């Protein structure tokens, strides 16, 4: 996710009319860090482990769905499927809420 985010950032900076790629790059870069953080918190039992890992998987799936749709629209002229980017965005919101629930859940031990 991080590498793809950097590549899309470069493409947006050097490509003609590539402004759409900025949002795809941002989603990938930001959520790559969020995945690392969520997994680290879950592994150390700072958040509820199963919910924290589920949130991390949600970040990966959702950011990939959003960025993939935006990138495909830029390069191919069509998206992955109807409402792919909004579905990815909605799943990102749900994943952040899941991570908040994981943080509020009491630690075991």
UniProtKB/TrEMBL annotation:
InterPro entries: DUF423. Keywords: Membrane, Transmembrane, Transmembrane helix. The chain crosses the membrane at residues 20-42, 49-68, 80-105. Pfam families: DUF423. This is DUF423 domain-containing protein. It comes from Bradyrhizobium valentinum.
């Amino acid at each position: 996710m991080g590498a793809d985010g950097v590549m899309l950032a470069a493409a947006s900076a050097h490509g003609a009319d590539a402004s759409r790629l900025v949002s795809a790059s941002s989603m990938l870069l930001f959520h790559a860090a969020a995945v690392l953080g969520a997994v680290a918190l879950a592994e150390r039992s700072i958040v509820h482990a199963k919910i924290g890992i589920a949130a991390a998987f949600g970040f990966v799936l959702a950011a990939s769905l959003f960025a993939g749709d935006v990138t495909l629209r830029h390069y191919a002229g069509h998206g992955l499927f109807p409402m792919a980017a909004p579905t990815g965005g909605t799943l990102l919101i749900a994943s952040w809420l899941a991570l908040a629930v994981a943080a509020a859940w009491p630690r075991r031990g």
